[in-house]
Specification:
Four copies of one chain form a homotetramer. By secondary structure, the first copy, chain A, is an alpha/beta fold. The first copy, chain A, has seven helices and five strands, in the order E-H-E-H-E-H-H-E-H-E-H-H. In chain A, helix 5 links the parallel strand 4 and strand 5.
C-alpha cells in the first residue's frame, strides 16, 4: 500500500512541504510506503473540459501527454493521497487546481459504467499560509475529493499560519503527523488490516519527525546555497 | 449499532426529510438500527460560548437543560449520524446551526485529556433547496464535522434542488440511499464487520424505498389534513 | 443616515463586540449615526420556511412577533449594517444565523413585484475566533448578503484570532475601523454625498478609538463585577 | 471607463462565455466600453509566491513575461472587471485560478506604501456548470476579490446550471445582463456620474441581448464548423 504526497507549492522546502513531509513520515510509522511529487515538477496543462463535449470523451487516461498525466497515474495507483498546498487567495495554488481539474478523468469513469477510479481512496490535506483562508481551502479540497469518491479519516486537515516557519508550529506538526497516521490507519482498516483512527498526541514522535525534516531541509538548503 | 438521522427542517415531510428517510432506509438495508429526530422538536438554546470563559468549562454534558441536550445525548450514543437540512441562505437552518454549535461540548473533551466524543463517528449529509448553495452547505457541514473527529465515507453528500418534490428527483433519491448504505457500510467496517463502501446504482432498491417513503408521506399528510 | 451594528455574540464585550464597536466609531468619524443590537438581546425564533408553502407567504413584516422582528425592522430602516460574529464551527453563531434566515422576508419582496428591501444597503463584516474559519465565515456572510441585494465596500471583512483580546490586535483594530469608515463612505457616495472608499492607515485614529473602547469595556466589567 | 470581461473557459462560446457576453452588453447599455479576454488565450505561468521570499519582491508588474502579464495589465487599467468561469470541481478553472494568484502583484502594492491597485475596482461574477458548486465558486471569487480591495454591486453573481445551453436559461440571462448593468452603474456612481444600482427586470432588453449573442454564437460556430 502506498501513500502519495502531492505538493502544490513552488517551494521545495516551504511550509506546506515541511508539513507534508511530516505527514508522510507519519504514514511510514504505520508501515506504509510513501512517495512525494510536486505539481511544479513539470507542465500541467489546464483541463479543456472534454466532459462537456457533445460526445463526452473524458476518461482515464487523460488525452494530454504531460507531467499532469504522470501525476494522475501516480494517484490512480495509490491507496491514499495527501494533498498539500500553500494558500493563494484563500484557495489551493492554481497549479494544484489544474491537477484537481484533470482528476475528472478518474471520476468520470462512472459515465462508462465503471466505479469512479477515486472511489475508496483515503485522502488528507495540508494547508499553510501567512494569514487567513486555511479552513476555506482545506474544506474545499475535502469536499471536492469526497465528491469524487474519496474517504476522509478524522482530523484530515492540518494547517499552519507560520508560512516558511511551519516546522516551528508544534500543534501543526503534530496535526500533520496525525494526517499521515490516520490516512494510513484508515487505508489499512479498509483492506482488512489492523489500524487505528484515533488522534495520537505524542511529543516524542513529534520531535523525532520534526528534527528529521529540519535536517533534510537544512541539507537541501546547503546544497542549493539558499542560506 | 445505530444510525441517527437529524432533521434540520421545520417541515416533517419536506424535501430534506424525504431524502433523510431514504438514507435511513438505506442504512437499514445494511442491517443497522435507525432513529430520526428533528431539531424543531423542541427548544435548542443558542450556545453561549463557555469555551471562551477565563476558566473554560465546556464539556459533555452541556449545561443547558433543554431539547438540545437530548439531541446531543442521542448523537453521543450513535455510531453514525446523517444530518439533513433545507438550504437557508446557502447554509444549514439556524436551528440546526444552534445544535452544531452545541456539539462543542463533545469535541472539547480533548481539553480534559480525553478523545473527542465525536471521534470515529461516521457522518453523512443531505441538503435540499429550491436553488443554489447546496455544495456550500454540504461541504461546510462535512468540514466542521470532520474537524470534530468524524469520518466521512465516499459520496457522503446527497442533494436535490426539487424542494418539496425531492422524492421525484431520481438521482437524489439514489444518492440519498447511498449516503445511508455507505455510512452504515463504513461504520460496520470500522467495527470489524463486513461492509461495502462502493456506490450502489440499483433502480429496484431505489423504487422500493421511494414508494415506501411516498406512502408514509401521504399517510402523514392525510392525518394532518395537509392535502 | 444610520449604520447599524448587529452583534452575534453572547458576550457583551467579547472580541467581536470590541471590533464591532471600533467599526461603529469609524462610521461616526464619517459623520453617520450608529446603533448596536445583540442577537442575544431576546428570542429569535427559527425561520419556519413560509417561502416554501404551497401559497408562498413570506414577506415583510415577518409573521413572528418576537425580538427577531424588532431587529429585522431596525435592519429595514438602516442604510448600512455591520454584522459581527464569533466563529462557531467555522460559521456565524446559530443565533445570528437564525436572524439571517429571517431576513428572507426582506429579500422575498421580489416575489411581490417590489425590489428586495435589502437592495442597496451597504454591509460590512467582523469575525473573531480563537483559531480558524474566519474567511469561511466572513466570505459566507458577504455572499449571502450580496445575494439579498447588499453592496460591499472594499476590505469589507475585518477579523481577529485573538478572541477576547481582539483589542490588542492592532491590525484587526485598524481593519475594523476601516470597515466602519468604508461602509459609511460608500453609503454617503450612494446618496450623492462626498465619501471615500480608500483604506485609511492612521495610527492616531486607531489608538484613539482603541482606548475609547477599552475604557468602555473596563467600565462595563467594573459594573458587572467581571474582573 | 472600461468594463473588462475575463473568460475562464476553454470554450469560446460555451455557457460562461455566453453569459459573460450578455453581461458586457449590459454594461454597454450603461454607456461603458467593454473588452473580453480569455485566460485560454495564451500561457499563464503559475505564481511562484515571491511574496514569501525572505526579501519580498512581489509588486506590479509581475516578473513573468507571459500572456498572464498582459491580462494583469488589462485588469490594472480597467475600472470594472467581470470574471466568468465554468465550474471545475466546485471552483474556478485552474487556468483562471492561476490568473487570480498572479493578481497578488496588484494587491501587494500595500507592502510598498501604495494603495492596492485593485482598490475601488468594481467586480461581477458569472459561473456556469452542469450541476453543483455555483455559489461556492461565485462566493469564493467575490470574497477573494473584495479582500484585494474590489467593490461588489448588488446581485453581483449570475449563474446557470444549463452548461452550453445557458442562453436558454432566461433567469440566468436576465441576471447576467444585470451583472453588467450594476457593475457599470456602480462604477459610474463612484466617479460622480449618474448610475443605478437596482435590479432591472426587462424582458425586452433580455430578448434583444439574448438574440444578439445567439447570432454571434451561430456565426462563430459556422466559421469553425462546429455544427
Amino acid at each position: 500500500m502506498r501513500v502519495l504526497g502531492i505538493l502544490g507549492s513552488p517551494r521545495p522546502f516551504g511550509g506546506s512541504s515541511q508539513l507534508l513531509r511530516c505527514a508522510l513520515l507519519g504514514a511510514q510509522e504505520e508501515g506504509l510506503e510513501t512517495a512525494l511529487f510536486s505539481v511544479y515538477g513539470g507542465e500541467i496543462r489546464p483541463c479543456q473540459g472534454c466532459i462537456q463535449d457533445e460526445e463526452p470523451n473524458c476518461k482515464y487516461p487523460c488525452i494530454f501527454e504531460d507531467y499532469g498525466k504522470k501525476l494522475i497515474t501516480e494517484i490512480y495507483h495509490a491507496e491514499a493521497i495527501i494533498f498539500a498546498t500553500p494558500i493563494y487567495w484563500y484557495g489551493p495554488s492554481g497549479q494544484l487546481k489544474n491537477l484537481i481539474d484533470r482528476l475528472t478523468c478518474l471520476e468520470n469513469m462512472v459515465a462508462y459504467g465503471e466505479p469512479s477510479y477515486m472511489e475508496g481512496k483515503v485522502v488528507g490535506i495540508i494547508t499553510v499560509g501567512a494569514d487567513a483562508g486555511l479552513t476555506l481551502t482545506g474544506g474545499y479540497l475535502l469536499t471536492a475529493l469526497n465528491a469524487m469518491g474519496a474517504i476522509i479519516p478524522p482530523w484530515a486537515h492540518a494547517y499552519s499560519r507560520r508560512a516558511d516557519h511551519a516546522l516551528e508550529d508544534s500543534r501543526a506538526v503534530m496535526d500533520a503527523i496525525n494526517v499521515g497516521l490516520l490516512v494510513a490507519g484508515l487505508a489499512k482498516i479498509l483492506r482488512g488490516q489492523k489500524g487505528t483512527i484515533s488522534y495520537r498526541d505524542d511529543a516524542n514522535l513529534r520531535e523525532r519527525i520534526r528534527l528529521k525534516i529540519l535536517k533534510e531541509k537544512e541539507e537541501f538548503e546547503a546544497q542549493h546555497d539558499q542560506k
